[in-house]
Design brief:
By secondary structure, the protein is of the alpha/beta class. Helices cover about 40% and strands about 15% of the residues. The chain has a 7-stranded mixed sheet with strand order 3-2-1-4-5-7-6, with helices on both faces. It is globular, with a radius of gyration of 18 Å.
Length: about 300
Amino acid sequence: MSKTGTQGGYGTAEGAVLARAIHAFHADQPILNDTWAFQLLDPARRAWVENLDYDGTYNIKPKTPGTFVPSWTACVNVANLRYVEDEVDRCIESGIDQYVILGAGFDTFALRRADLTGRMRVYEIDHPDVQALKRQRISLANSKPDSMPTFVSVDFESATVTEALKATTFDPKRCSIFSLIGTIPYLSHSAIEALLRELKVLMAPGSRLVLSYNCDVPLSEEQHAILQVLEGLVSQYGEPVKTNWRPEAFEKLLQAVGFAIVEHATEQDLHARYFSGRADGLKIGIPVRLIVAEPSL
């Protein structure tokens, strides 16, 4: 298991937070102003981000291992999480007060949303190795978090979310919002279906699920090359991509396990919502699929 990185390089958890740190630290008008991402980096990479000669495009050449953060990774990372947080804010306005982040990695939602203290209980579910490193980084940070999530350790391939949440204050009878971003590609088909079926049972009527998945759609030569590089990097550090889905097939799976689809967003949707008119020309260069769903009655 190398979600926390090996051989001087990043696993997906740290690679994602690096992208968000660069965006929040250097970009004008950040799409996601993740002010805590920088705090969760190790000291060497904090210094690297601070001294980065940023040109606004994320086309950063790798000077040292683990510092390759091209535009297609950074944009997808910040846009996906902004999309989720917009949905979380809508759910809060409708009275939902429980947020479960599946495969949380180095998510910083609870650490920086002082405005939600006392209004939203946040549960972060992930592998124990990731959570141990994250808690260490929080303890060494220069800032004090606005609040702390409830950390819930689980391996999605061998344990259930339901059992893990039983040991917490989570109330399955209350409406909640669940997010599952950047995790599905690393699970087997059987694990994905089992997890979705479990969530359908666990989520009270009126709850919401926001997820992302790797989509199998026609690619340009450039996109194909980009994705080959990305899949090679995550495989190198022990997290090979296991699943890609045709969009219609993933919709059918969700419907089969008992979810109704509220929205199925593409990279074009994200561009129109978050990137249109930006002076820096920042954009998403690879296919992206995000779904908002709710349990069927």
